[in-house]
Design goal:
This protein is an alpha/beta fold. The protein contains 9 helices and 5 strands. Helix 4 packs antiparallel against helix 5 and helix 4 packs across helix 6.
Length: about 230
């Protein structure tokens, strides 16, 4: 997969990138999609964001989808990305999330092959960490109890397909800063972060503390929690 580390900014033109934002419910996927797009636009690049098809579907139908409706939603999400305008594309979820929920809710794992084939088209995949507080959001969110299982299924699917991903933690501007670094882009300086905070990007800031909020390496994260579990069992 194409890497972003070392991409030049400010001078040389950067090639367009496809970025996927994945994660459990209420982990700031939509916020991060829009915040990243705003920063990359301010740096002189054309950016197209792709909204979550499932959210629009639930709002239109007034309910959550049944098992037989999952595939069409996943296909519509993929199609929206593939039809995006030229330039950078940042997708607020991908068919992987539909596959995961179909697996979790209906014990239907049939969507993974299609979803993972599509996922391989992205230059980089970001997974939003569980360090933000859960917030109710109408029909679409089940509750905080599903965040852990969803997070695990997302990571397992990516790892089975050998798709590299980075995990993003942090509150408000720090989350955005960490996401930029995970993309191989320059982070925001203090003045830019303050301006963004005034523009109400900094939701949920300071509500929780997370030990991994400056590291997006899932391998490092795994080692941390393995060590903590070992200490508890000792």
């Amino acid at each position: 997969m194409a890497g972003l580390a070392g991409a030049a900014e400010g001078g040389a033109l950067m090639p367009p990138r496809r970025i996927a934002i994945l994660g459990a419910e209420s982990t700031g996927k939509s916020w991060l999609t829009q915040a990243l797009a705003e920063v990359i636009r301010m740096r002189g690049h054309a950016v197209h964001t792709v909204d979550e098809v499932l959210r629009d579907w639930c709002e239109r139908e007034g309910r959550t989808p049944h098992r037989h409706e999952q595939l069409a939603i996943a296909q519509a999400q993929a199609q929206a990305v593939e039809q995006a305008a030229p330039g950078w594309v940042i997708s607020d979820t991908t068919p992987i999330m539909t596959a995961v929920y179909s697996h979790l809710l209906f014990e239907d794992a049939s969507l993974y092959p299609m979803a993972l084939t599509h996922q391989a088209q992205y230059d980089i995949t970001l997974v939003t960490g569980l360090d933000l507080p859960w917030v109710a959001d109408g029909l679409q969110r089940d509750g905080p109890h599903v965040r852990g299982p969803v997070d695990s299924l997302v990571r397992q699917a990516l790892e089975r397909a050998e798709i590299t991903y980075r995990v993003v933690y942090g509150q408000g501007p720090q989350r955005l800063h960490n996401a930029l670094l995970a993309l191989g882009l320059a982070g925001e300086d203090g003045q830019a972060g303050q301006l963004r905070e005034q523009a109400q990007f900094a939701i949920n800031q300071g509500r929780t503390v997370w030990q991994c909020n400056e590291c997006s390496d899932p391998g490092c994260e795994h080692k941390l929690f393995t060590g903590l579990l070992a200490q508890r069992s000792a």
